[in-house]
Every structure is written in structure tokens, then in C-alpha cells.
Amino acid sequence: MPDKTEKESRRQIHRELREKAKIEFEKSLPISKELFQTLFDFLDEELEKNGCDDRLKFTKQFLEINKIQNVDEVENWLKENGGFCDCEVLYNVEELFED
To answer: Is there a contact between 47 and 86 (Cβ–Cβ < 8 Å)?
Structure first.
């Protein structure tokens, strides 16, 4: 059975790995974390009013409104992370941002 020092060492390693994964995730983002949060809020409102049409209609609208230049990169990143339509962006991708 591990002693107290070994347990604390394991916890520290786990914290460091989690922090490293978080940093790598944020580096992979095609737009800022804050802009993603704003996108999720936007989608939440739009989908509540209009429902999902199995496309990235409102996501593309959001990117256009916010004058995002790398739209293709954002769309590809979303799809790679389970966001093939607006509701999947909200359900699958937003989950990745939860701490």
C-alpha cells in the first residue's frame, strides 16, 4: 500500500498531466476559449427558438457576425470534435470546455 508521500506525489503528477492536457487543448483551438463560450451561448439561444436543421447554420452565422477569418479551420475543428451540426456543437463540443 502506498504511503502518504507516494500518494501526494501521484496526485501532483495527475494535476500536472491534467494542466498539460488543458494547455495543449487550448493551443489546438482555432478561436479563443472565450469566443467559443460566446458561440455556445449564441447557439443555446438560437436552437431554443429555432431548433436544429442538422447543419452548422447558426455556427456559421455566429462566425460571420464576429468576422472570423479562419471559418474553414473552425468548422474542421468542430467536426473533428463531434460538432457536425449546431446541436452537436452545443452538446459534444461544449462538453470539452468543462473543467
So the answer is: yes
C-alpha to C-alpha distance for 91 and 74, rounded to whole angstroms: 17
What torsion, rounded to 10 degrees, do the Cα atoms 98, 71, 35, 55 define? -60
Distances (CA, A) of 14 to 3, 8, 19, 27, 28: 17, 10, 9, 20, 21
pLDDT in tens, 1-21: 678 888 888 898 889 998 898
List, in order, residues 6 or more apart from 50 with CB less than 8 Å away: 58
List the alpha helices (DSSP H) in the chain. 4-28, 33-50, 57-65, 71-80, 86-88, 94-96
25 within 8 A of 45, measured Cβ to Cβ: no
pLDDT, tens digit (0-9, with 9 covering 90-100), for 67-96: 999 999 999 999 999 999 999 999 999 999
pTM: 0.82
